[in-house]
Design a protein that fits this description.
about 200 residues; alpha+beta; hypothetical protein PF0899 fold
Length: about 200
Amino acid sequence: MHTKLQELTDKIYNEGVQKANEEAGQILEKAKKEAEEIVAKARADAEKTIKDAEKKAEEIKHNMEAEMKLASTQALTALKQKVSGLITLQVVEPSMKEVFSDKDYLQKIIETVVKGWTKTGDFDLSVVLPEKDKKEFDKFFKNSLAVELNKGVEVSYDSEVEGGFRIGPKDGSYIISFTEEDFNNFFKAYLRPKTVELLFDKK
């Protein structure tokens, strides 16, 4: 009786230990699998983070290179324009100032334009001259263009006209400008690209 009871006790114990060992093994196997999955996911996440960071760094590098190239191109273009502008300024302005300071030459131009305009009998004409030269031009018109003045050509003076003259119909519907500033701007616009080409373009 005692022996059978001991055998039964041992059997129950052994079965319990075996079952506990099996369960412990299953728990360890499951924990190991979960740990491997966590490590694999962490490795994949880390690789993705690295790839994303590398891609972002490459984009930033590309953008910075593009911006630097654009900025350098713009700076070079601005420098070319400034240099050519200074050269053009030194060439054009003294020349135009010399031309427009020659009152005899300017008066001949005005006389030619006015007489050419009124040749057909149209005396609906207004001439605007520099205010600072009023006395000189009054004398010129009385001596050289008295007929045109008597037939209706108007002469006025404007302090904003520094050199040269403006001409057009009396109603102001349009104006043809022959001022020093106009010629300066015209020749600057014409010469500046030519100057840039001569200074900087490679043949």
